[in-house]
Specification:
Layout (H helix, E strand, L loop, with lengths): L1 H23 L6 H9 L4 H23 L7 H28 L5 H20 L10 H41 L1
Length: 178
């Protein structure tokens, strides 16, 4: 009986902890986006541009919050929306790494991603807010700087990967000629 009571207590604690986590943590992607990604799981040339679109939508929400002076708890909202952008952008990079590790030819998608990197970098730079003073202002400023650095670093990685894939494709083509 004591073992059963202990098991039940542990089970209830785990259940309560998971419910608390689920309440605090929200999924960045909505159900429709998840379904689109599932449908393109084996098609990197379709899947990667979807991540670009999702990241762009999250960054647009950051811009909307940034330009809305009536938004309650503005710095907190900016921070949350910027974190959503970063989560999607990180997932994009994880997928790029997966496809690159499998030696998939993702040159076409990389060109779209590199263009988006330039766009994202410009939008993030435009979000600099020296007037932010709320308690979340420092967290937002730090996250914004982190996002800018991540996009800049990733853009370099994406260009490097594209160059490597272009070289590999050229070598493959040359091998076929001989």
């Amino acid at each position: 009986m004591t073992a059963m009571r202990s098991f039940l207590t542990v089970f209830l604690l785990v259940l309560a902890a998971s419910l608390l986590y689920a309440e605090q943590h929200h999924d960045v992607l909505n159900e429709e986006e998840v379904n689109q990604l599932r449908a393109t799981a084996l098609e990197p040339l379709k899947r990667l541009p979807l991540f670009v679109d999702f990241a762009r939508a999250r960054l647009d929400k950051v811009q909307q919050a940034h330009s809305d002076p009536k938004l309650a708890d503005r710095e907190h909202e900016l921070h949350e929306r910027l974190q959503d952008f970063m989560d999607v952008y990180d997932e994009l990079n994880d997928n790029i790494d997966t496809y690159a590790d499998r030696n998939d030819d993702i040159r076409k998608a990389l060109k779209v991603i590199i263009d988006a990197d330039t766009e994202f970098d410009a939008k993030l730079r435009a979000l600099q807010t020296p007037q932010a003073t709320g308690p979340d202002a420092r967290q937002y400023a730090f996250l914004l700087q982190t996002a800018q650095e991540a996009v800049e670093s990733s853009a370099q990685d994406h260009r490097q990967l594209l160059a490597e894939q272009e070289e590999a494709a050229k070598n493959k083509k040359d091998e076929k000629k001989h």
